[in-house]
Design goal:
Layout: H1 21-34, H2 44-61, H3 67-87, H4 93-128
Length: 129
């Protein structure tokens, strides 16, 4: 079937304990950061940290206390969810499912927060007007 469609399907590569001396040294020093990711997506832990920084630090100062603040966090989280779904960075499929479920739950929580804050603002405007 894959031959008919002119596609080649390969399993994700994983890190090996043997191999080049530099690779072994990298695994010993900081393998805990990238061993859960495929070789092609070794950098994904950096993206995870950037996402966390954006959501926890940057968003805290953007439009404080408004639905826009929560919407910005939702956008950052949703874009990261799409990135995870497209790249599938994990060697272990269970980690991919766990990360996806976590990001989906976070998106639902933020979306619910947006709706509550917007409803509250609309109710306050109706009471004032």
């Amino acid at each position: 079937e894959l031959h008919r469609e002119n596609r080649l399907s390969l399993q994700p590569l994983s890190w090996k304990d043997g191999g080049e001396a530099r690779e072994v040294q990298a695994i010993e020093r900081c393998g805990f950061l990238f061993l859960t990711y495929t070789v092609e997506t070794w950098f994904f832990e950096i993206l995870v940290m950037i996402n966390k920084l954006l959501i926890t630090s940057i968003v805290a100062f953007a439009f404080p206390g408004s639905p826009t603040q929560v919407a910005v966090a939702f956008i950052f989280n949703f874009v990261f969810l799409l990135l995870v779904l497209v790249r599938k960075p994990f060697v272990n499929r269970k980690l991919l499912v766990l990360q996806t479920c976590s990001l989906v739950a976070h998106c639902f929580t933020l979306f619910f927060g947006i709706t509550l804050m917007t409803a509250s603002l609309l109710a306050d405007q109706d009471n004032a007007g």
